[in-house]
Write a structure and sequence with these properties.
The strands form two sheets. The protein has a five-stranded antiparallel sheet, with no helix packed on it. Strands 6-5-8-3-10 form a five-stranded antiparallel sheet. It is of the alpha+beta class and 225 residues long. The longest helix is centred in the N-terminal third of the chain and has 16 residues. It contains four helices and ten strands; from the N terminus they run H-E-E-E-E-E-E-E-E-E-E-H-H-H. The chain starts with a helix and ends with a helix. It is globular. It binds 2-acetamido-2-deoxy-beta-D-glucopyranose (2 copies). The site of one 2-acetamido-2-deoxy-beta-D-glucopyranose has 2 residues, from loops.
Length: 225
């Protein structure tokens, strides 16, 4: 290796030691004013979504009516989830590092089961009712609060969390903002007991100190095989 190269390498490593590592708290910064997603280009795979020609972008592209209307909470979890996301129904969010979620909770224990978002922190705002929220950090410490109208709570990125409506005579409503255009969602119960193909029973028996019959019963509850 030539001497100048060695010099350059040592300079670079000194620089690396002296400079605090860049921390990206959300998706990468956009390098254009906007990049309204062109959802028709389904065979193009990039980190984000391809942009519409800016000349064809209009005010309407930046508006969404995704949260209009009332959801139906008559389901086993007692929740109705609405979302505004770049890849699904709000292409203007492409490259903006944002996804928004609206959750309506039935008064009888509307429940968002334990889950993680691998790529986003979440701030939840409760606008109606009472919602018990909680998350567990990587040392298994549990953090929790009961939120009433006007209260906010943070679920740090990637940590296990849940929401449960507490007021049995009044439905709840919350909105969340997540700092990724594709936060990802992994529901712990279905991930473990209803994956495709299924995780072998012996693995689940050892993981939870349960027997095969109990694994089968839990798999059945989650619709797994
Ligand atoms: C809500 O969902 C339930 C279960 O799918 C259905 O029976 C009911 O008709 C729905 N209600 C409305 C108002 O759509
Ligand atoms: C449930 O919500 C209603 C309406 O906000 C309120 O009047 C009532 O006190 C709440 N009940 C409980 C147990 O928090």
């Amino acid at each position: 290796m030539a001497r100048p190269t060695i010099l350059l390498l040592s300079c670079l490593s000194l620089l690396a030691m002296a400079t605090p590592a860049a921390v990206l708290a959300a998706d990468a910064d956009p390098i254009l004013d906007f990049c309204v997603a062109d959802l028709s280009k389904t065979d193009l795979f990039i980190n984000g979504l391809p942009c519409k020609n800016p000349a064809t972008v209009t005010s309407g592209d930046f508006k969404s009516m995704a949260f209009r209307g009332v959801g139906n909470t008559s389901n086993p979890l007692g929740i109705a989830i609405g979302f505004a996301a770049a890849g699904a129904n709000f292409p203007a969010l492409n490259t903006q590092g944002l996804t928004l979620v609206k959750i309506e909770y039935a008064s009888t224990g509307g429940f968002v089961p334990p889950h993680v978002h691998p790529r986003a922190s979440e701030v939840i705002l409760v606008l109606e009712g009472a919602v018990l929220v909680g998350f567990v950090d990587t040392s298994n410490k549990y953090y929790s609060a009961t939120l009433y109208a006007g209260d906010l709570f943070v679920f740090p990125r990637g940590l296990l969390h849940f929401q449960l409506s507490l007021n049995s005579s009044y439905p709840a409503l919350s909105f969340s903002s997540l700092n990724s255009q594709n936060p990802g969602l992994s529901l712990i119960g279905p991930a473990l007991f209803a994956s495709t193909p299924g995780i072998p029973s012996i693995v689940l028996q050892k993981s939870f100190a349960i027997d095969d019959a109990q694994v089968k019963a839990i798999k059945m509850a989650f619709g797994g095989k």
